[in-house]
Amino acid sequence: MPRDTGIGAATLRREDVRFLTGTGEYTDDIVLAKQTYAVFARSTVAHGKIKSIDTSAAAQMPGVLAVFTGDDFVDVGGNPAGWLINSRDGEPMKEPKRPVLAHGKVRHVGDAYAAVIAETVEQARDAVEAIEADIEELPAIIDMNAALSSSTYVHDEIETNQCFDWGWIEDNREATDTAIKNAHHVTTLELVNNRLVPNAMEPRASIGSYKASTGEYTLHTTSQNPHLTRLLISAFVLGIPENMLTVIAPDVGGGFGSKIYHYGEEALVLAAAKQVGRPVKWTADRTESFLTDAHGRDHVTKIELALDAEGNFLAFRTDTKANVGAYLSNFSTATPTFLHGTLMGGNYTVPLVYVNVKAVFTNTAPVDAYRGAGRPEATYSIERVIDKAARELGMDPIELRRKNFVKPDQYPYASAAGLEYDAGNYDALMDKMEEVADISGFEARRKASEAKGLMRGLGVNAYIEACGIAPSNLVGVLGSRVGLYDAATVRVNATGNISVMVGAHSHGQGHETAFPQVVSDMLGIDASTIDIVHGDTSKIPFGMGTYGSRSLAVCGSAVVRATEKIIVKAKKIAAHMLEVTDQDISLNDGVFSVEGTNKSVTFGEVALKAYIPHDYPLESIEPGLEETAFYDPANFTYPSGAYACEVEVDPETGKVRVDRMCAVDDFGNVINPMIVTGQVHGGLAQGIGQALVEQTFYDEYGQLLSASYMDYTMPRADDLPMFQVDHSQGTPCVHNPLGVKGCGEAGAIGSPPTVVNAVVDALQSGGHNITHIDMPVTPVRVWEAMQNAK
Amino acid sequence: MYNFDVVTPNTIAEAAAAMAGDEAQALGGGQTLIPTLKQRLASPNTLVSLSGVSEMQGITKSGDTLRIGGATTHHAVASDGSYPGLSGLAGQIGDPAVRNRGTIGGSLANNDPAACYPAAALASGATIITNTREIAADDYFQGMFETALEEGEIITAVSFPIPQAANYQKFVQPASRFALVGVFVAKYASGVRVAVTGASNDGVFRWTEAEEALSRDFSAAALEGLSVSEDDMISDLHGTARYRAHLIKVVTARAVTAAS
Ligand SMILES: Cc1cc2nc3c(=O)[nH]c(=O)nc-3n(C[C@H](O)[C@H](O)[C@H](O)COP(=O)(O)OP(=O)(O)OC[C@H]3O[C@@H](n4cnc5c(N)ncnc54)[C@H](O)[C@@H]3O)c2cc1C
Fold this sequence. Notes:
By secondary structure, chain A is of the alpha+beta class. Chain A has three domains: 3-22 and 485-631, Aldehyde Oxidoreductase, domain 4 (2-Layer Sandwich), CATH 3.30.365; 31-138 and 201-254 and 259-292, Aldehyde Oxidoreductase, domain 3 (Alpha-Beta Complex), CATH 3.90.1170; 299-469 and 635-788, Aldehyde oxidase/xanthine dehydrogenase, molybdopterin binding domain (Aldehyde Oxidoreductase, domain 4), CATH 3.30.365. Chain B is an alpha+beta fold. Chain B folds into three domains: 5-49, Uridine Diphospho-n-acetylenolpyruvylglucosamine Reductase, domain 2; 57-161, Uridine Diphospho-n-acetylenolpyruvylglucosamine Reductase, domain 3 (2-Layer Sandwich); 165-259, CO dehydrogenase flavoprotein, C-terminal domain (Enolase-like, domain 1). Helix content of chain B is 31%, strand content 23%. Chain B has helices at 12-19, 33-38, 74-80, 84-90, 96-101, 104-110, 117-123, 137-140, 208-216, 241-259, and strands at 5-7, 24-27, 46-49, 59-62, 65-69, 127-130, 134-136, 155-161, 165-172, 179-188, 191-197, 205-206. In chain B, the strands form three sheets. Chain B has a five-stranded antiparallel beta sheet. Chain B has a four-stranded antiparallel beta sheet with strand order 9-10-11-12, with helices on both faces. Chain B has a three-stranded parallel beta sheet with strand order 1-3-2, covered by helices on one side. Chain B is globular, with a radius of gyration of 18 Å. The model of chain B has no long low-confidence stretch (mean pLDDT 97). The interface between A and B is medium-sized, with 24 and 17 residues. Flavin-adenine dinucleotide (FAD) binds at residues 25-33, 50, 70, 93-94, 98, 101-103, 105-107, 109-110, 112, 115-117, 154-155, 177-178 of chain B.
C-alpha cells in the first residue's frame, strides 16, 4: 500500500538494479549507425603561442574523415560564464572568450587545439600524432600571487590576470574593519582550500549527430543538465536553433559538479557530425579527465574572527584568492562569490561579515563548482577559525559555538552576509551529535589510544549551507544570467500508470525512486506504477538540472504542484462520475469517494474516463490527464548540521586514521531515509578525501603531476570508518511544499573542517604546538609540521 | 596502443628464440606493460607471452631453498607459505586482480623503485635465474628500472634461501599503494640482511648499518642511534627526502618487531 512506498519509506533504489547488473546505458555504450570517432590534440605545455598547425599529413592518414583546428571556429561564439560578477569599483568582470578549440594560444596542459575525426579511435589517434603544431612555449602562470603581479597574461586581450575583485557586503567593509581593530580578541588563520579533481567514475563522453533531411541535431552527452547545455550551445556557441537541437543525457556515472558545464568537445562533435555527415563520438580517457574536467575549490584564504571578552562573535573578515584556471567555466564566477561569501556568517549571530574575493586566471584547468560549491570553502574557513579561537581563548569548542548560535526563536534570521535563514535548530543538532558521537566517552578513548602510542583528537563543527538555488528574481539581481526554477509534467496514462517528466537529472541521486514516492504519497497509489523520465530535452518540458542539492527542493516542488493540478482535475472527473460536486470528493489511498456515502471510484477508473470521455463533462474540462508545473522557489533552503570526528595520529609516521565520524544533519523532511543516508555517506567520503588524501599538484611549469591514480589519491573504503549518521532533527523548510532542504552535498561540506580540527586536537594533545595544517593532511605534512614545531 | 603481434611459446627455448626477434618484448602478467602500451609509451613489434611456459610456473621447496618460476603469480606466492615473510609481501602487492596476473619475473625485470619484490630478493640474497645464467641479487639491481638483464634475457626462476625469520613492512604511498618506504628484514644464521625499497633515487638498497646492528642484536632497540642520510632519498609530493629517511628507520623497527 502507498504507506510503504510514499514519503518517508526507505524503499530500495529501483535504478540500482540496472546499475549493479551492468545494464545501465551510458553515453559510451550508445552506438549510432555509421558512427565515427573524434580524438583531440591537446597541449603538452601550460602556456604557448600557436605559431602554426599543419594538419596536411594527418588528413591523409588512413580512415581520417576530417581535421579541425581553432581556425574552424573563429566565426562561432564562445562558451560563456553564467554569472556576471561586478568588481568593488563597479567594473564588470573580465570575460575572455572560451573558444571551441584553442586559437592563438594554448592556456593549460590538456587545452585542445585540434581534433581528428576518423573511422576508428585508433586511426584518429594515429592522425593526431601526425599533426605538426609549432607552439612556442610561454612562461606559465601557476601561482595566484605571481599571477596578480605578472606582466605575462593568460589572456593577453584583458591585460590582467585578475578576473574580478569582489566585495561582500561592500557596505559592511569599514564597520567590519573597525570592529576587528577594536575587538578584545582577534583570531587569524591563513589556509588553503585544496584543488580537487572530480573523478567521476564515468569519463565525459559525447556523440553528435545530424540529420541533413531536417536539419536536426542530436547530442548524447554526459550532462547533469541537458537543457542548460542545449541553451548554451544554441544561444552562445554554435547558434543552432533550440528547436533543432535535442540533448540527451542518458545514464550518467557521477558528476559531482563537473558535468554541469558545457565543454568544447560537445560543440565539436556536433559541428563535425554535420561536416562528415555521420555521427561523431568522443570519449575521454582518464588522463583527459584529469587534465580537462573542471576542477574544484582552490582557494587561498585569510580569515579573521573578532570576539569580545565573553566569546561573542563580533565580525568575520575574509580575504580569498580563488583560482578560476585558464578559462571561465559556466559557474566559476558564482562559486567563489555568491555561493561562498553569502555563507560567511555561518550558523552564528555575528553582526558583521565582510568578504573580499579576487578571482585569478592561471595556466591550469578551469575550476568550477564541485560537490558543495563555495559552501565547503566557507564552512572550512569559518569552522577552522572558530576552533582556533576556542583554543586561544581556552574555551570549549562546542560551548563557543553554542554561545553564538542563531536560536530557534530568531527565525526568519537575516544573516550579516545577506541571506534569510528560514528554519533551523542548531542546539538540537549539537545535542544530538553529542549523544550519537558519545562525546562524553572521548576521554576514555583518548587514553586507550595513548596506551597504543597514538595521539587521539576530537574535532567538531557546525555548518549551514544554502541549497535549492533559488529564486530567479534574487539570483537575477545578483548577476545570474539564467533563471533557477524547475519544471515537471505528470502524465497519467489511460490505464492509470504515470510518467513524470522532470527537469532534474539523476546521475546517482536516486530520483527514479524518490520522486515517485512523492507522487505515490499524494495520489495514494503504489509507487511501482509511477515512472520518472529525465535527461532528454525532447521528452521533458524544461529543466535547470541537478546541482546544488536542488533536485527535490526545486524540481520535487514542481512535481508536487503538477500532481496537485492532477488531483484537482481528477476530482472534477470523479465528481462527474459520481454525480456530485468536486468539493464533495475526497482522495484517500487512490480512491475518490463522497464523504458520508459509499459512492467511490478508483484513480484508475478516473484515468480511463479522462482518455475515453464517452460520458464526460466536455463543456467544462478537457479530456486527458496531464499537467505541467514550473516552480520557482521563494528562497534558498538551509540545511545545517553538527559533526564530530575522532582521529588517531601516529607520532612516528604522521599518518592519520579516522576512527569515528558522526554526521547529524537537518535536511528538513526526508522522503527516503535510505537514499539520504547514502548521499551523506558519499559526501563524507569525498569530504574526508579532501581533508586527508586528495592532492592536485601542478608544478611550476604547469604540468599536472597528479594526473593519474598513481599519484592522485582517491579515498577508499579502508580509509573510512563506519559512519554514524542521523537526520532525526529536521526542521522543515517553511517555503517549499515538501518541507525539504537538500542532502547531496552536506557530507562534503561538513566533514573537512571536522577532520582537520580533530587532527590539530590530536597533535596538541601530543604536546605539539601546531595550530593549523593545510589539506590534504597527508602523513608527510603532519610529520613535517611536527618537526617544524620542535 | 600501437599494433603488435603476440606469440605464445610453450618452452623457455621457444620463448628465448622469440625474444631474439626485432623489437620483441616479454609479457608477464601485463600489469605494468599493458598500461604502458595503452598510453602508447612503448611500441614493441612482438609480445612474447610467458604465461604458457610451464617450466616457468610454480613453487618448489628443496631443503632451505625456495625456487619460484619466473611466471608465477603474486597470488600463488602469497598462498604458498613455505617462506612466510615472502608470502606476506606478495599478499600486499596491489589488489586481487593484480596479484592474480602479475608475476615475480615481471616485477623483478621491471625493478620499479617502489616495487615490493626487489626488497625481498635483495634482503634474502636471492638468485635471479635467467635463460642464460644465474645472477646474485646483490649484482642484479642497478638503480631505478635498471637491472643486470641483457636485451632479450628472460627471468625463468628466482631462488630464495629461506631465513630463520623475516618480515616485510610497507608504508604505502597513498595513491598507488606501492611502497613509499618498504623494508624487508631477513635473519639468517650468517647474519641479518635489510633491504629498503621506495625510498632511494638509486632504487632498492641494503641498509648495511642496520644489518650490522641487527646481526648483533635482532631487536628494534638495536636500531636506536642509527640514522639514514637523506642525501639520495626521493623527494616528491608524497614525501620529502628527510621524511623518507626517517621512515626507513621506523619501518625497519616495525619489521624487526614483527619478525621476532
Ligand atoms: C593497480 C596496481 C597496483 C600495483 N601495486 C603494486 C605494489 O603494491 N607493489 C608492487 O611491487 N607492484 C605493484 N604493482 C605492479 C605489479 O606487481 C606488476 O605485476 C609487476 O610490476 C609487473 O609484473 P607483470 O608480470 O605484470 O609484468 P609485465 O607488466 O608483463 O612486464 C613488466 C616488464 O617486465 C618484463 N618482463 C615480464 N616478465 C619477464 C620475465 N619473466 N623476464 C624478463 N622480463 C620480463 C616486460 O617485458 C616488461 O618490461 C601494481 C600494479 C597495478 C596495476
